[in-house]
Here is the input.
Amino acid sequence: MDPHNSAQDVYRCDLCETAIVHSYCDFCHVNLCKPCIGDHISDGYDKHKIVPFKERRSTLIYPKCETHPQKMCELQCKDCNNISICSFCTASEQHRGHIFVQISTVYKEQKETIEKDTEELVNTLSPTYEEIARDLENQLANLDGGYEKLTTTMSKQGEQWHREIDIVINKMKTEISEIKVKHRDILQKHLDEIKQTQSLIKQTMRAINEIEKSTEVSPTIAYSSKIREFSKLPPKIQVSLPTFIPKPIDREKLYSLFGQITPLSTATKENVLSLHQPKTSVRELLDEPELVATIQTGYGNLRSVTCLNDGSIWTSGKTNDIKCFNIKGSLLQTVKQKSGNFPNDIAVDSNGDLLYNSGATRTVNKVKNRQTEELIRLQGWKPSQLCVTSTGDLLVTMYSDDYTQSKVVRYSGSTEKQTIQFDDEGKPLYSGNYYPKYITENRNHDICVADCRAGAVVVVNQDGRLRWRYTGHPPVTKNKPFTPWGITTDSQSRILTADDVNHCIHILDQNGRFLRYIDNCDLKDPTGLCVDNNDNLFVCGLYKGNVKKIKYLK
Here is the structure.
């Protein structure tokens, strides 16, 4: 029997190994009964920290001061590269006038970081890598079956060609085998890389676990988070199987006419991990959308609306003021552009700060603590519409000074990261003109642009490659050309776009399939759209100057 624990898991004293534990030495990490406490601290009370057993491991163990060995370092000097110091050091000439912070505060912050890292590793990163590994393993497991189907098809074709085609069949099977080897090598290489990263994650988790169990200050403070490193996911590998294309029999052109094997095609797609994106449950569309509220803004030409987390909304129109309202319609704040020009569009960043752009000044601006600062200034182009992505980037649609070109540019802060303008054939994705091109990002990171002049919703993936275009639903009750203005997405990855001239909202799924209209809430000339955290839709009425809040999900 373990002398420290009985069958009922009763903790025993580490010194006498018989009495039931009463206290704990937080410095020595020893279980103690009452009689043994005196023996344990006999070498000096200041060398020990006796606490009730239930409060064990609650005392921080500070490092000793190198300058004053009799003192413990309970502070860090911010001006000296965060070195640990004691209270005596603060009065020294070396640290005169410096800023100090309690080590316990740093310790607590680091412990919180470790807890968050553990949660991310256990709940997000590790399962994500497991899923990627399973996908690669499934591809490998299905590899033989896929290639078997190819060889079977080839054999059936070969039976019709009799003996003279056998040589061709064997040659092509050899090609297939070689491609298969390459295919396997590609998948195995990526799987090995994933496995290696998984191993590093497990090592990190074990290291974190040791730190979490310990009250040692130094390893905790020395901890360096690897979440950013692990969050940069490898590209998702998708290797397509070659295909076999049978051709009519012609003995003079036996090899070329027997068929064709397409080369091995390897496509990589960037894996983006949204660590803080909330999970959502499935929500169905209401049979009949409901008008919840109408907010009068006072604009004669209302263009844009964007939602804040607290339920309030920012609005803008063809005036130089941008207004914030609560859901009851009370005006909370007004921001006036210094230039006197009206904003083309507005958005809210991840910190809740207002962003707006101006075609007249070619700028994108930020309002923080009621102070306006310039983020971006364009040359040769004018900004049109804005969107803040789930990763905090800014997407801006813009048009050239001669009105012949349009494009989407992604910014990180004020730095340009990506330009989206042409498809794979070099053709423009968007019509070249100064008409509004409202923009939004879907939950799958697709970039959706409502090109009103082209009469199309244009959707590209996060790499800027065209996925699909939506040019309207076959008209039954809508007899005017599809003219999309505002565009937004909801928690279900559905896309909603305002059809200005037909006075309705089109709802699409993430693949461009039409689902239904919203046309029953007395909508008139809808323009700007946004969806709040509860999937309520806000719709701008261009000339009425009101914002309508609509419930359209169950």
